[in-house]
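Q: Got a minute? One more chain.
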Amino acid sequence: MKPKKNPKKDLGRKSVLFFQIGLILMLLITWRAIEWKTYDKEAIDQGVVQFDQLEEEDVPITEIQTPPPPPPPPPPAPEVIEVVEDDVEIEEEIIESTEVTDEPEIVEVDDVEPTPEEVIEDVPFTAIEDVPLFPGCEKYKTNAERKKCMSDKIKNFVNSKFNTDLGSELGLSGVNRVYVRFKIDRNGKVVGVQARAPHPRLQKEAERVVGMLPNMVPGKQRGKPVGVLYSLPIIFQVQD
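A: Always. Here it is, folded:
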């Protein structure tokens, strides 16, 4: 037996969908009904200004008061002219000139005393800033190296020139010492040789040998050549 209704046109299957759509429409209508508002036309202010309703406002006029000008100064008093009789003597006031009439004194060049140059006293060899240079010691750069080189050169020179046989000729024995003191002046020359020895002939021999030392480059203190004091002990032994 065939069914009377077409299964494709059965609305019962979509009843749930129709119910939901109807529920949504009812909720929407209810919400709009609650939110609906009405206003009286008289209560609406359309923002139109009536110029005839504005009250006229009196604006105060500000007056600027200008102070009166000051009165003019009084006219100067007339100068009083004193009339002097012809027989009255008038003392004339002498006005001294302020100009300098004296010619400046011209100082002759010969009259000017030169500033004395600073004189540096003789300096001991141990305290000199730049030691004298014995020939052959120029290759060293430091002050300590030059001191050692100079001491060695002087000692070797004196030992090679000193007559050590003089001690035996004088009847001396053992170790003998001769102390010599001299100065290397500002020109590098050996001057002022002084010796102290156990015999006068040894003293003269020491002075002779030290006087033969060659000229040297002078020592310097604060950049200026100065005299350098040097002490030299000569020690030799006489064989018995």
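A: Residues 129-238 form a domain with the Fusion Protein Consisting Of Minor Coat Protein, Glycine Rich Linker, Tola, And A His Tag; Chain: A; Domain 2 fold (CATH 3.30.1150).
Q: Perfect, thanks.
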